[in-house]
């Protein structure tokens, strides 16, 4: 690739630093929440609780990381939670039937990825707006999962498999390693590869992207497939951590994942945002709930507080963005 | 008392009725309305209804909202059913207040209807068969507090805040706590009936509370989530759940769960269908049965540890006894 095209599709130097400023503000917000919680609760700053928060944030992050790429292209994937549920239920069955966790993991990734790819096909080939296509997919997946499970649960998995979600390695929970790995891969992919830069370009201006020779369709297919595959990965973590799967696990996963992406500063209009920001978004959401549990905030107030924090985070984002531009 | 009297009155009538009306009234269609396909409780209700219909030579048709507990969906299902005109309806409202207009539609269409599980706030019913969430919470909590000899630290994991089931169950929990001044309530936090949320809440609560002796969870999925969190931290506490799901029974068997309060969903399905068919065959019915909660423990889990399909419905004579509050 020549320097000129590279320049045309990759964000300019100043834009990159603006991204950095945005992420910095978010980290600051997260640290502020941490500082407040540390003052209010003795147990907040314990190592145990910090690992706890990271492990809890990881599940939201896995789902949200793939979703970030979709949102970067100005799309949305509403089917991720339902995808987690179906993948978990099928993977759970495979592990029960074959006794092989590996086959279960493969099943979850393949099912998750295939669902994602199908979303991509609907968005590209059929030109259905992603909001509608993935909303439809949500229903299809829920229907399949409800029918398949018939109100049952699948539970009890081999101890080795349980390690993925519940185990420790050198004192750190295994999901935290996975979190770091996928945070690294996601950031490198989005920030440092041509494909990643092309995804930003598609979100910023799809027509310009097409005209400058970016294979828009293929990149969109990739993005939705990645989002689905990450849902498949999340389903494995879910299964091994909770030791069971049921049909309605997805409902409570989709919106926090979307919220993490948006709190993380990725714009719904596409082209702006980072995977690292999404990680901070997932962290903020987890911190808020963790803090309310530690402080025994009444169950009545928790949704309200969460809602206010989400709105504040996005408002703060818009404000700082306007100032830096 | 009044039910027992009713039962004595009913017996001779029943014998007479068996000879005169049964033959001509075979093969009725009973439309069974339940709230969702995700809660295992309603699966037991449906199997109970099918079981009873089979015994009495009738058929069942199931109406379940595809989106769990959807008010508009159940309303439109009622409209469909009124057109289809089944012989009778066994009805669980997805919302006890909001579905009253729906029940009135059924009444206007002159289709006989039995109310099960959640008591409708209005409309005319042949009978009501249910259990009450308050005594379910109270009795299950009492069992746990007794197991702890009335002292120790307790946490409550609540269901969806504001839902009727949760309000009543948690009220029951709290009343049981009041009877035991030696018990300290550390926290009452929401898990929204979701196992992942319950697991995370438990992880968080363990950070700020070094000693937790008992967990009162408003359903089994959350109880199992809490147990996973305890296991993960190598801590022990007595945990109770509510619903008597298969998963809970497995956990009781293996000694991980202390007890689960059972709502007798299977019996509710059986008896609701029985009353509907009996009314059609002009046999006496019982107007109200409020089932006592069953506390499933290690001592009595055996009858619950059989596949639903091979459970046996109570007879009318047994129902007469069950009717006694």
UniProtKB/TrEMBL annotation, chain A:
One of its GO terms (cellular component) is plasma membrane. It is a multi-pass membrane protein. InterPro entries: ABC_transp_permease (IPR001851). Pfam families: BPD_transp_2. Keywords: Cell inner membrane, Cell membrane, Membrane, Transmembrane, Transmembrane helix, Transport. The chain crosses the membrane at residues 23-47, 59-82, 102-121, 128-148, 168-190, 220-240, 252-269, 301-318. Its main location: membrane. One of its GO terms (molecular function) is transmembrane transporter activity. It is found in: Cell membrane. The keyword Membrane applies. PANTHER family: ABC TRANSPORTER PERMEASE PROTEIN YPHD-RELATED, ABC TRANSPORTER PERMEASE PROTEIN YPHD-RELATED-RELATED. This is Sugar ABC transporter permease protein. It comes from Bradyrhizobium oligotrophicum S58.
């Amino acid at each position: 690739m020549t320097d000129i095209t590279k320049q045309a599709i990759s964000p300019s130097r100043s834009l990159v630093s603006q991204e950095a400023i945005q992420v910095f503000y978010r980290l600051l917000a997260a640290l502020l929440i941490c500082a407040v919680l540390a003052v209010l609760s003795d147990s907040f700053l314990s190592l145990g609780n910090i690992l706890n928060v990271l492990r809890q944030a990881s599940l939201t992050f896995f789902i949200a990381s793939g979703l970030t790429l979709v949102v970067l292209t100005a799309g949305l994937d509403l089917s991720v939670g339902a995808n987690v549920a179906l993948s978990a239920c099928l993977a759970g069955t495979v592990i029960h039937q074959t006794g092989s966790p590996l086959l279960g993991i493969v099943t979850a990734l393949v099912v998750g990825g295939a669902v994602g790819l199908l979303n991509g096909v609907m968005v590209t080939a059929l030109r259905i707006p992603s909001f509608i296509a993935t909303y439809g997919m949500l229903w299809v997946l829920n229907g399949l999962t409800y029918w398949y499970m018939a109100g049952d649960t699948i539970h009890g998995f081999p101890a080795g498999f349980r390690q993925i979600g519940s185990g420790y390695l050198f004192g750190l929970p295994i999901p935290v390693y996975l979190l770091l790995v996928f945070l690294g891969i996601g950031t490198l992919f989005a920030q440092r590869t041509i494909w990643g830069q092309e995804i930003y370009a598609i979100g910023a201006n799809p027509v310009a992207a097409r005209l400058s020779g970016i294979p828009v369709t293929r990149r969109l297919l990739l993005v939705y497939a990645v989002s689905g595959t990450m849902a498949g990965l999340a389903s494995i973590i879910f299964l091994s951590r909770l030791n069971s799967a049921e049909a309605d696990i997805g409902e409570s996963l989709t919106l926090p994942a979307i919220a993490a992406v948006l709190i993380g500063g990725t714009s719904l209009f596409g082209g702006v945002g980072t995977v690292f920001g999404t990680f901070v978004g997932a962290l903020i959401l987890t911190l808020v709930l963790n803090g309310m549990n530690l402080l025994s905030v009444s169950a009545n107030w928790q949704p309200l507080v969460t809602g206010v924090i989400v709105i504040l985070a996005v408002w703060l984002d818009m404000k700082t963005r306007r100032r830096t531009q | 008392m009044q039910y027992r009297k009713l039962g004595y009155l009913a017996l001779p009538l029943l014998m007479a009725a068996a000879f005169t009306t049964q033959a001509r009234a075979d093969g009725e269609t009973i439309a069974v309305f339940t709230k969702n396909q995700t809660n295992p409780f309603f699966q037991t209700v449906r199997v109970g209804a099918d079981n009873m219909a089979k015994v009495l030579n009738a058929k069942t048709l199931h109406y379940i909202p595809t989106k769990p507990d959807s008010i508009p969906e159940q309303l439109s299902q009622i409209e469909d059913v009124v057109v289809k005109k089944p012989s009778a309806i066994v009805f669980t409202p997805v919302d006890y207040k909001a579905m009253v207009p729906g029940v009135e539609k059924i009444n206007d269409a002159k289709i006989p209807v039995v109310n099960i599980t959640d008591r409708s706030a209005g409309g005319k019913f042949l009978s009501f068969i249910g259990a009450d969430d308050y005594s379910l919470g109270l009795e299950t909590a009492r069992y746990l507090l007794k197991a702890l000899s009335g002292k120790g630290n307790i946490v409550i994991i609540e269901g969806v805040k504001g839902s009727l089931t949760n309000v009543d169950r948690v009220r029951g929990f709290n009343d049981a706590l009041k009877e035991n001044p030696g018990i300290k309530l550390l926290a009452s936090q929401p898990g929204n009936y979701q196992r992942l949320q319950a697991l995370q809440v438990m992880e968080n609560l363990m950070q700020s509370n070094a000693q937790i002796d008992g967990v009162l969870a408003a359903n089994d999925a959350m109880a199992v989530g809490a147990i996973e969190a305890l296991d993960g931290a190598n801590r022990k506490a007595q945990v109770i759940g509510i619903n008597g799901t298969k998963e809970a029974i497995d956990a009781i068997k293996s000694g991980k769960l202390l007890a689960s309060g059972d709502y007798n969903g299977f019996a509710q399905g059986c008896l609701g269908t029985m009353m509907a068919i009996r009314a059609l065959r002009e046999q006496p019915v019982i107007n109200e049965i409020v089932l006592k909660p069953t506390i499933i423990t290690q001592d009595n889990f055996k009858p619950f540890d059989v596949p639903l399909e091979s459970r046996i419905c109570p007879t009318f004579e047994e129902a007469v006894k069950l009717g006694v509050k």
